[in-house]
Amino acid sequence: MRKTVIASVLSAMFFALGLSAEAQQLTKIPRIGFLFIGSKDQPHLDSFRQGLRDLGYVEGKNIAIEYRYAEGKPDALPALAAELAGLNVDVILTTTLRASRVVLQTTSTIPIVGVGLGDFVDAGLVKSLAQPGGNLTGLSNSAGPGMRGKQLELLKEAVPRISVVAMLWNIDAGPLASVALEEAKTAAKALGIQIEPYEIKGAADIERAFDDVKKFRINAFLITGGPVTTKNSTRIAELATKVRLPAMYNTRQFVEDGGLMAYGVNFGDIYRRAATYVDKVLKGRKPADLPVEQPVKFEFIINLKAAKQIGLTITPNVLARADKVIK
After folding, report:
1. Of 48, 100, 124, 198, which has the fewest CB atoms closer than 10 Å, so is most exposed?
2. What is the pLDDT of residue 24?
């Protein structure tokens, strides 16, 4: 009788443990990793989180996000990528070509979503935009040929007197950076503008470009994207104001941080759309079969306060072309 009771108790315990394990399995929430080459002050993360909320995901409740920041140190990326892979996350998001390549070298099984990486094919990340073919897909910020020309055209229209434009470009983007520079030079020649290029590897390079204003008779700036320029957006806007010169930027972040004007893709929209890729992966879609998405939204932003600080009057016809005017 005693043996029967003990057996019954043990049976009930194992049954309860089985139910508990099953319950834990059922309540297990997906975990995603987000790898940044920069620091914690990422300007578009809120757009990504909003995209998740729109799809029913609430961070900390039914989805977990592991953030890793290289703090501007590329050498830190391999260890951070390995850390995320070791956590066995369900998907890893990256925001630069270098970080994407590092994660690809770290894992061939965990799905990777690249956010705003430029030309995925030219960078060797995927076989084709329609059929990526590996464990990486994502959303491009590449607008194709003509973007630099459009930026210079708008800058020249707003400030007809410009003749020498300093271009701060992201050398770490590799071949894509060189293509952007040559594109800018070609467009500038047609507009009667000379491009003075500056390779940006760190904050000191930014300071040097603004220190050379008088030396090269620079009278405007063209600021391209990249981890260094993005991290120093406020400082760049401050320097442009200090030397009282107009500048064209590639995203609204710079204008919201005090810059004069920007024309480019809507990065907030790209980050918001990235949430849809995470959702698809979590529901079983393979990156190999998820086409790389091209940007569809472009915007022209003008900061009138910044214009006033450098003594510039923006004509009504230029203002009319703006998607947003900050007063």
Report:
1. 124
2. 42
Judge whether 30-141+267-289 and 147-266+298-326 match in fold: yes
Task: Please give the structure tokens belonging to residue 294.
Answer: 């091209």
The CATH number, out of the four listed (3.40.50.1820, 3.40.710.10, 3.40.1280.10, 3.40.50.2300), of the domain defined by the range 30-141+267-289: 3.40.50.2300
Mean pLDDT of the chain: 89
Can you say how many angstroms the Cα of residue 309 is from the centroid of all Cα atoms in its chain? Answer: 29
Residue 27's DSSP bridge partners are: none
- Between CA 159 and CA 72 the distance in angstroms is 34
Q: Answer whether CATH 3.40.50.2300 is correct for domain 147-266+298-326.
A: yes
Q: Closest Cα partner for 314 from 192, 164, 191, 157?
A: 157
| Strand order across the beta sheet in which 136-139 lies | 64-69, 31-36, 91-94, 112-115, 136-139
Q: Which two tokens stand for residue 306?
A: 């910044």
Asked if residues 103 and 92 have their Cβ atoms less than 8 Å apart, the reply is yes
The two three-digit tokens of residue 224, written as one number: 């391209």
Separation of alpha carbons 8 and 4, rounded Å: 6
User: What pTM was computed for the model?
Assistant: 0.81
Domain boundaries of the chain, sorted by first residue: 30-141+267-289, 147-266+298-326
pLDDT of residue 20: 45
Query: How far is the C-alpha of 36 from the C-alpha of 69, rounded, in Å?
Result: 5
- Cα 164 to chain centroid distance, Å, stands at 29
Q: Average pLDDT in the 218-242 region?
A: 91
Whether residue 296 contacts residue 317, with contact meaning beta carbons closer than 8 Å, is answered with no
User: β-strand 164-169 against 136-139: which pairing, if any?
Assistant: unpaired
Cβ 257 vs Cβ 237: under 8 Å: yes
Q: Is it the case that residue 25 has pLDDT exceeding 50?
A: no
